[in-house]
Amino acid sequence: MPWRQGDPEKKVLDVYIEKGMRYKHKIVFEGQADEALSSTSTITGDIVITLEQWDHPKFKRKSDDLYLEHTLSLTEALCGFQLSLTHLDGQRLLIKSNPGEVIKHAGKTSLAEVCVLF
Fold first, then answer.
1. Which residue range is the domain that position 99 belongs to?
2. Residue 64 shares a structural domain with residue 110
3. What is the CB neighbour count within 10 angstroms for residue 16?
4. What share of residues in the chain are helix, strand, coil (percent, to 5)?
5. pLDDT tens-digit series, residues 39-65
6. Residues 7-16: what's their mean pLDDT?
């Protein structure tokens, strides 16, 4: 397909990525492409942005949830613990267990949008 004649117009397109958008989600800017749909057309095509998802060293994504695995020692499981972590948006979270509180293997605690597996 031929490029439009003359000086190419420069545009800035703002792309808003919302929390929870899925892998391969498509964001479409209709009629914003630099190329015409055919050599006889003046209608331009669409710009399509497809989201990629990269692995994170701490968090794993399952559907709409983020998971974090943390190994507790026997002492921490029996005597209590505090786990401080920083969420992806920079928010600090404190997860606490009191002495004597039972932490079961593969127990799930859900805080905000993070699931922590023990």
1. 59-117
2. yes
3. 6
4. 5, 35, 60
5. 777 778 889 999 998 888 988 888 778
6. 78
